[in-house]
Amino acid sequence: MYRAGERYMAYIKGKERFGGLIEHGLGDWGRGIAHGIAQANIETAVYHEYLLCMSKFASHLNLDDEKKSWEKEAKRIYDVYNQHLLVTDDPSRPHAYYTSRDDYPNRDYDAVCQALALQFNMVPEGHISAVQASILSDVSDGKLRSGEIGLRYLFNTLGDLGRTDLVLGETTLLEFWQDECRSKCHDMLGSILEWFYIYVLGLKVGEKGWRTFTVAPDYHSEFGTVEGEFESPYGMIGLSWSKISSGIEMELSVPVGSTATVVLPKDDCHVMINRHLLDDKKWAEQSNRVELEHGAYTLHFPI
């Protein structure tokens, strides 16, 4: 399998333009003319991710020299991506942003291009806050402009930025925006369930296999009560949280062999914790997060 991946990477490398950009596929399918939108942004980011996957693959196989070679290739693509797509010198915009090459050399300012760069960790550290501001600026009118490829990354980025209020109206990922589109559940790249679990319920995997996981819902979202379950490899994770007069009441079940990190809504947050065992242990902490091992818990904290 590793050598098959190596051959595929050689094939993709043969499609490079301008030193490393890929503009060979459908782009953000389902938007505008249906294809060819934001090709370089989408396909090059995915190419970079593939190279990182090959590096991890080589590491598992103890191929240290090949691991370093894949990392070098990934760094090359990262640099080319930012050389051609990151804009830091536009006097008409208050923030750095990513442009597509759809109408080169003209620049555009599109939420999907910002989301892709953020979700695939393509943004240099010094520009992350600026690119986050750029995506929020583009969607400030309450309208989401995306095809079905970019939609997942757009939803996830809005969740990361605490703007779940902008994800409204649909309960599936669409192929096209038309009311009579041929596919209203076009979930080959993910599904709206991912957004519900991670950004509404607040449950996110840590290490592979759910040995660790994070609980970090958007406590300031429009939802008053949220509850759900997830069958992890270590057992059932149960989670519910509600807004009450004093803040948040949370119920959490952590299965054997797992550790949960509960992210609190502010630094130095005072949280009351009740672990439901035979001794019904209670205690208080003051932090921005708490780690909880196997057990059933009730937590109370302000927002």
Just name the CATH architecture of the largest domain.
Alpha/alpha barrel
The CATH topology annotation of the largest domain reads as: Glycosyltransferase
Rounded average pLDDT: 91
Helix content: 25-40%
Shape verdict: globular
Structural class: alpha+beta
- Quick one: biggest sheet? 6 strands, antiparallel
Low-pLDDT windows of residues: none
- CATH C-level class of the largest domain is Mainly Alpha
The number of helical runs is 7
Fraction of residues in β-strands: 15-25%
Query: What is the tally of beta strands?
Result: 14
The side-by-side strand order for the widest beta sheet comes to 7-8-9-14-11-12
Q: How far apart are the termini? A: 49 Å
Number of domains as seen in the coordinates: 2
**H/E element string?**
HEEHHEEHHHHEEEEEEEEEE
Radius of gyration: 22 Å
Secondary structure topology:
Elements: H1 2-13, E1 16-17, E2 21-22, H2 39-60, H3 64-85, E3 86-87, E4 97-98, H4 111-119, H5 128-138, H6 148-160, H7 192-201, E5 203-205, E6 212-215, E7 225-232, E8 235-244, E9 247-254, E10 259-263, E11 269-275, E12 281-287, E13 289-292, E14 295-301
Parallel strand pairs: 6-10
Antiparallel strand pairs: 1-2, 3-4, 5-6, 7-8, 8-9, 9-14, 10-13, 11-12, 11-14
Helix pairs in contact: 1-2, 2-3, 4-5, 4-6, 6-7
What does the model show?
This is alpha-L-rhamnosidase. Residues 2-200 form the Alpha-L-rhamnosidase six-hairpin glycosidase domain. It catalyses: Hydrolysis of terminal non-reducing alpha-L-rhamnose residues in alpha-L-rhamnosides. By secondary structure, this protein is α+β, with helices and mostly antiparallel strands. The chain has 2 domains: 2-140, Glycosyltransferase (Alpha/alpha barrel); 204-301, Maltose phosphorylase, domain 3. Helices cover 33% and strands 23% of the residues. It is built from 7 helices and 14 strands. It has helices spanning 2-13, 39-60, 64-85, 111-119, 128-138, 148-160, 192-201, and strands at 16-17, 21-22, 86-87, 97-98, 203-205, 212-215, 225-232, 235-244, 247-254, 259-263, 269-275, 281-287, 289-292, 295-301. The strands form 4 sheets. Strands 7-8-9-14-11-12 form a 6-stranded antiparallel β-sheet, covered by helices on one side. It has a 4-stranded mixed β-sheet with strand order 5-6-10-13. A hairpin with a 5-residue loop joins strand 11 and strand 12. Helix 2 (39-60) packs antiparallel against helix 3 (64-85), helix 4 runs antiparallel to helix 5 (128-138) and helix 6 runs parallel beside helix 7. It starts with a helix and ends with a strand. The relative contact order is 0.08.
